[in-house]
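quick one before i forget lol
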Amino acid sequence: QVQLVESGGGLVQAGGSLRLSCAASGRTFSRFAMGWFRQAPGKEREFVAAISWSGGTTNYADSVKGRFTISRDSAKSTVYLQMSSLKPEDTAVYYCATDLTRRWPPSQVENEYDYWGQGTQVTVSS
């Protein structure tokens, strides 16, 4: 069993920045790939970014490349999503998730993730 708790969401103006955090507990964090997904109102949940269990490999959706950075701190069992140059279309509920395999490269596929957090709202105003 893995518990994931996201934090750091909020309201920000377009062009601003936010850093999301996802604290993991319950199993050995350093063994798992981690991902961020988001769901905007009326839309399906979509992949945002993922990081391998070692932290050495990352994947990004084309829509966030160059603006978002995923990282992890195994000592704190936490994964981060640094979001910069935010746009109104980035408005969504952001979820972190863990893949219990050592899949490489880290997956962009929602159903390959095993545990999910409750989500944190990010709202970008124009």
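fyi The CA atoms of residues 38 and 94 lie 4 Å apart.
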